[in-house]
Amino acid sequence: MPRLLAAAPRRRLGIGLAFVLALTACTTMTDHPPAVPAADDPLLWLEEVQGERAMAWVRAQNERSQAELTARPEYAPTRAQLLEVLNARDRIPFVVRRGRWLYNLWQDDTHKRGLWRRTTLEEYQRPEPRWDTVLDLDALGEREGENWVWGGAACLGPDYRRCLISLSRGGADAKVVREFDAETREFIPGGFELPEAKSDIDWIDADTVYVGTDFGPGSLTDSGYPRVIKRWQRGTPLQAAVTVFEGETRDVAVGVSVDRTPGFERTLFSRATDFYNQRFFLLEGEQLKPLDIPSDALPSFLRDTLLLSLRSDLSVNGSTFPSGSLLYTDAAAYLRGERSLRPLFTPTATRSLAGYTFTRDHVLLNVMDNVASRLELWHPAGGGFQGRPVDAPFPGTLGVSPLHDALIEDDPLADSYLLSYTDFLTPDSLYLGTTRDDARTVLKSRTALFDAEGLRAEQRFATSKDGTRVPYFVVWPRGAQADGRNPTLLYGYGGFEIALKPWYSGGFGRAWYARGGVLVVANIRGGGEFGPAWHQAAAKQNKQRSYDDFIAVAEDLLATGVTSPEHLGAMGGSNGGLLVGAAFTQRPDLFNAIVCQVPLLDMQRYHTLLAGASWMAEYGNPDDPAEWAFISRYSPFQQLRADTRYPKVLFTTSTRDDRVHPGHARRMAARMQALGHPVLYYENIEGGHGGAADNAQRAHLQALEFSYLWQQLGH
Prior knowledge:
The protein has 15 helices and 39 strands.
């Protein structure tokens, strides 16, 4: 299952007749402020993440919940099946190109934390490529006495020998950065190194980097991200780094991106004033020049072309471009003040831009058409761009990644790209394609992880409270009928403009479909399925629309006989945890199971905890009485009542989650228990915001969740 998580800052810098009464039941949401003001909450001690009393509570809850769920007959076989899926040797090793090498991080039963390894494209095309291990994270962690989790690498081209490797303890967002030599396979003594923090670092040249990190008091924003960018010279202490860019404390973060394309070198700084608005500055010599674009537009450069992705309508020279458009113009002319913008992509009511990327001479557009992917290919011609659709698998989910390296002269892969495809019932495949034609080579294809014969997936639409049509997918197990008796799991997210697209899951196939479970995926407002407007329709004062949409899908499942309240459960993580928290507090009559993962739940305090301040553009500011008036009406923690019967909820979180504070789940579970409601609670001591740090932990956590679901929803 995908674990869609409350996002880190946006830093794209170029970079579920008998149930009719239930359908008309009024919500239990109140019109009043919270009954428990935060300052008087006797459970605040649970926010002490590593506090002795708090951790004793966590361990006691874990012991009780695990004892109940691991005793279920489903647990042991489910865990074994999930671990087999997670460690399957035929998983596609997705890669990133760095020069002549394709790099991959591989985790399995032997390498739980992973091998950072590489191979060539020629070798990668073989059924069993030979891999060259660059760094063994398990061995490193054992040697250093640390629980290292891979956090990524920034390597300096064109040789990509020197890399800035990020490692986190237990999967936290905060990471240690250490310089590494990919040829000697050793960390460089005296090289660039940063202590644990939420940092932003990028190469300028072999001896210089830009760095934003925790430099001390005043160097972080209220959200806990870098406020200052400095230029740091090799061989000098971090304290000697020179400040080159600053944001404000109330900003979300600052960032920097260095484009080293020969002849089109650019350095772009940014200030994220909130989650969806940024101010960009181009470095010209030693001067910073503001990039005059709408604050909610995202820029990128293809050599001499500037592209702008719009999140609101833009009127220029008598033309109005709708939100969700992708525009292009001559970069130099635009920087001189000219405003000759043209559309490369224009959205419709059902088509939106999921993303785009570049080969050397082409722009590849990944377009969502009623929540199914299509690909388009565009290239400069006659002073503009010409495009065509690409013949690619449909309907399902496409992913595209270019192989072009701008730092390699006469790059033989300049026009090549990797294309992936999957849907609910089709295993992932990876193709090698080129912009010359639509012929593709199958590089990798997964063996089916479950028997899909007799299973079917379909798209349906529910009508929300305000009349909006809300799409959702239904994946039916073999032999299922609309008799109202199907164990059904409704999954949703609905935030941060993140779309839920079809995905293939061996875990669901074995632990859910094979046992007769129905999966439903709701494409509710707040997500990005139909572009920025779909998201903006359910943000801040309109956030309740996400919950109305989710409830409408649940009601439609009952009305059409897919399931019944006795057999309907809901699942969501992070913002999706808030979603299912709001759903079960507002409409407890609809559900018999809730899996609430790494959730936000106390919306009166979310902005004071960890990265919470960065999400006020999504939810609003609870310190503002006008905004707390609408937030308080759905905030799950404040909406809890002793006299309401709720489904038995399973809360899951991670001690090492430094994005969404585990105090949300802890205090919600503790308060429900204090009010006399049955709950289960499991907190992984590691795992970060993803909830688990390795495959064994993931299999255990997911087996607990599936065992709970069958306990609550099974016949």
